[in-house]
Amino acid sequence: MSMFRAKKLDLGCFTNVRILRDHSKRKAFEAAEPERQALRYIIRNTLLPARTRAIAQLQLTQMHCYTRPTQIRNRCILGGKGRGILRDFKMSRYNFRMQALEGNLPGVKKASW
Amino acid sequence: MSTPRLIRPLRPLLQGQVPRAAPRAAATQLRTYASVEQPSAPSAAKASSANAPAAEEAAEESGKKNRVSRLPRALEALYLKPLRREAEYGVPTCDLQLRSYSARNLEFFCDFALRAAYYLNLPAFGPVPLPRLVERWTVPKSTFIFKKSQENFERITLRRLIQIKDGHPDNVQLWLAFLQKHAYYGVGMKANVWEFSKLDVAKEMDKSVDETAKLMEGKWDHLAYVEKKAEPEGKPREQLPTPEALEQFIAAERRRIAGGR
Predict the structure, then answer these.
(1) What ranges does the record list as Low complexity composition bias (chain B) (predicted)?
(2) Residue B244 burial (CB < 10 Å; 0-12/13-18/19+)?
């Protein structure tokens, strides 16, 4: 979906095509969020005429899939991995362990209790 | 409260200020600040005594018992516990929370904040150690089939609370700005500030509205619905529709959407 992709690279982290795709999805969602919320409101508002609500439902389903929040997936900023991401550090478990052992993450230490 | 014995003040000896006025001290003992506490004492001691009354008292006692050389009072106060002002009413005006991963940095900066509060005339309480925040992560050491061998990591956030009571809002702002300016590495700060005003807040707000209305008078033109440049001179500006017209329009629109029903 190249129409959502930025013409110039606008990311500073590790890049591969999956990271770029996820990034453009995030931007598309951000841009379309007010519209989505307005349509959702119309659909759920029982005071509005049924026809209006049905039209809103159709419009919401016809929006591009990139504007859906469920399309967004957290990815590792160091390797682009899509699974096993620690939300606190935006890193996959392996990269987190490497960085933590090197001491690059402030305050993170080996724990023993 | 032990005074550093090894550090000898140089000035009185070099300048020869301590002289005949205190012959008994000059005869056998060291000439120190403590030994020159006569009416003719150097003015530096007086100036610092205003800053550090508590330290002075303690120092005077020790000075009378055993005359020991020591630092000027303002400097000596740095080695002692931070001084504090007394709160008259005990109304909290500011809660400052300091967070860090290292106890050393945190303690140091708390001490600094307390001293700054003293010299800004703010009664400070604390540092109160708040509960630590412990976050733990467990990750497999290697690929997923070796789930048996894992590694634990943790991050412990230490927190301290410093409360200012009866502080003048300006002084509190000044204190916070000073702490921010001299922020220490690895220490985060967050502050809750409370301000108190008189009971008739509404009247004051009304007054301020009148004042701002005058300021705003010239600005309304910038909020124009139509762009000003486009219209020629002398022509009346395009008006916004009246409320009645708007209502009619909205009703018509509703009817249209509902399919004429």
Answers:
(1) 1-14, 37-56
(2) exposed
